[in-house]
Design a protein that fits this description.
The chain is α+β, with helices and mostly antiparallel strands and about 600 residues long. It is built from 18 helices and 21 strands.
């Protein structure tokens, strides 16, 4: 997901420093300097749901007071509630919260704060039912059409180190500065594979099929069906005759002279490799799930893309049969890990949904058992057969989501209860690790290990952001997709457990608050006061064409990270520079919008839940 500048980093840094003209088009962003700030979700909040403003103050002591305004008129006043001291991101600041969750009338809300002689007012935020979906759904969906890749040259592409040429036309470009197409990447690092185009295809097919009433109510049903079939058609074309999917169509991020082809690649230099056959973890599992769900959509609607529903299902079944036999061979280390488990489980759930065949339920039980065996006593998961903690920059919520999907097809009460116990423990762990330290924004924390000689080793650590010293060697940018995946997991998992409450989304207060906080961070309630969702909110990430490429409305930037130079990802940073590395924070990436769309459709209260 890096731009060309990633491969030529040091050269471009010199050029950037030397070129006054280029420096005009890049932006260096630091934490705001104001002594009093009020940060809120800048896009939309649920009428019946958590509503929280975070106040940052760097001035002298004194009592603080707040006023909540609706459509410019005060509706609530009170004393600021202090939060625990927190110095990791801004030493010297104090933090307060303003909870206005009880304000349930539709309108535009602002929070005004006064401490001593200082006064600050938040940006305004819309409050309504099904707030984020109703406000952003059309543009989130539109992002995929704007990202479609239609270059005719992709109809005749070589496969790396073979004499073969194949049709890999269609799909979506991966990121603003990257017209490559990925079911996944980072396979060489084994534990970092993100689900990319394959996840997008599944979310679109699932939304069009399972949430039809929601999209129809907003006039989006035809649009999401079209996009779902676009994704399914691409997956059909990238399914080799042998039964594996092509992982990547790649040209070294548009490097001049680099040949575009079906290939694997490794590292910041984009070195071509033969790791182009998708394992379950490298997009194969979610591709199968997407095709199976697209077949159900075709049956439901009587519509399809270039290929029909029977073809989508035949593809899914053939691909699963192939990976069931050969999957370990397609991983860099030839060993299955947790990502294989939860993506294969999603594939099997959808195959069972599409066919009703008991053999898929049998295999799903095996995969679910393997995934559940990776849970530790406190609810955290491990990635391998040893002790490496599971952490993921794009899809940390997918283990719980996959187990919740499995519960929906499991008829045996004992097996269901085992899965429910694991889901409950996993969600408790997420709440515990996030809340056990001072954490004014409620940012989801994670466990990790640093690498030694290219492998995770040593003490298990905890922190807010992905560590910079990890097995990929270079990949640690912002986590917008991760946050949305965890928000969706908290809602789906809690509903699967039938844990009900009145704090929002039908959940208890702690779970609803956690889910809301992850989306609020992306939508502007963060220390930089930036909405990462382009086209929404008062302030968006800057356009940095040289490093991050195009910015599409509905696209979501990578987001905030730990400080540059911090092995553990401690501290905080957003788009420092100007230099060629700004893509790490600013660039839009398809999993971010994919997971946001899934999370907000999950949050809605329409009957077609």
């Amino acid at each position: 997901m890096a731009a060309l500048a990633m491969a030529l980093s040091s050269l471009l840094q010199v050029a950037c420093a030397a070129s006054a003209e280029e420096s005009k088009t890049t932006v260096s962003l630091s934490l705001p300097k104001a002594s009093l700030l009020v940060q809120v979700n800048q896009v939309a909040l649920e009428r019946q749901g958590p509503k929280l403003a975070i106040v940052e103050y760097a001035g002298e002591g004194g009592e603080g007071r707040y006023t909540v305004l609706r459509d410019g008129k005060p509706i609530k006043k009170g004393v600021l509630q202090p939060l625990q001291p927190f110095a990791e991101w801004s030493p010297g600041k104090r933090y307060f919260s303003v909870d206005f969750s009880d304000a349930e009338q539709v309108g535009k809300y602002e929070v005004e704060v006064r401490i001593g002689k200082q006064r600050a007012v938040s940006t305004s935020v819309s409050v309504r039912d099904n707030a984020v979906f109703a406000t952003t759904g059309a543009q989130l969906l539109g992002y995929f059409k704007r990202s479609r890749h239609t270059d005719e040259a992709d109809r005749d592409l070589p496969i790396f180190q073979t004499s073969r040429r194949v049709n890999a036309w269609g799909g979506w470009q991966d990121a603003g500065g990257d017209k490559g197409k990925y079911l996944s990447h980072l396979g060489y690092a084994n534990y970092f594979n993100p689900q990319q185009a394959s996840m997008a295809a599944w979310v679109l097919a699932y939304g069009a099929h399972a949430r039809k009433a929601l999209f129809a109510a907003h006039g989006l049903q035809t649009q999401i069906e079209d996009e779902a079939f676009w994704g399914a058609d691409y997956l059909h074309r990238t399914l080799d005759a042998e039964g594996y999917f092509y992982t990547t169509v790649f040209d070294q991020w548009g490097t001049p002279g680099a040949k575009r082809m079906v290939t694997g690649y490794e590292g910041a230099a984009g070195t071509y490799t033969t790791l182009y056959r998708s394992a379950f973890r490298a997009g194969g599992g979610m591709a199968i799930a997407a095709l199976a769900r697209a077949s159900m959509l075709a049956k439901q609607t009587g519509r399809h893309g270039e290929f029909d529903g029977a073809q989508y299902l035949a593809d899914a079944e053939r691909a699963y049969a192939h990976l069931r036999k050969f999957n370990p061979q397609y991983g860099a280390d030839r060993k299955e890990n947790i990502i294989d488990d939860y993506t294969a489980l999603m594939a099997l759930v959808e195959l069972h949904n599409a066919t009703g065949q008991s053999r898929y339920l049998d295999d799903a039980r095996e995969r679910a058992a393997g995934l559940m065996a990776r849970q530790q006593a406190d609810g955290a998961f491990i990635s391998d057969g040893g002790s490496r903690p599971y952490y993921h920059a794009a899809e940390a919520g997918l283990p719980v989501i996959s187990l919740s999907a499995y519960v929906d097809i499991e008829p045996e009460q004992g097996r269901r209860q085992r899965a429910l116990d694991v889901i409950g423990l996993a969600l408790t762990h997420e709440l515990t690790i996030t809340n056990e330290v001072s954490n004014p924004y409620g940012y989801a924390r994670q466990r990790f290990q640093l690498t030694k000689d290219g492998k995770a080793a040593g003490e298990v650590l905890e922190g807010f952001f992905i560590p910079h010293r990890n097995e990929t060697g270079y990949w640690w940018q912002g986590e917008s997709a991760r946050l949305a995946s965890l928000s969706a997991a908290m809602i789906i998992g809690s509903r699967t457990l039938a844990e009900q409450g009145t704090a929002g989304y039908g959940l208890p207060a702690d779970r609803a608050g956690y889910a809301q906080s992850q989306l609020d961070w992306t939508l502007g309630r963060n220390p930089y006061g930036i909405s990462m969702l382009y086209g929404f909110g008062k302030k968006n990430p800057p356009t940095v064409l040289e490093s991050a490429g195009e910015m599409f409305t509905g696209g979501i930037s990578n987001g905030i990270t730990g400080a540059v130079g911090s092995d553990t990802g401690a501290g905080i940073s957003f788009a420092p520079g100007p230099d060629s590395e700004q893509w790490r924070w600013v660039e839009q990436w398809i999993p971010h919008t994919t997971w946001m769309l899934f999370a907000v459709m999950t949050m809605t209260t329409d009957e077609a839940r």
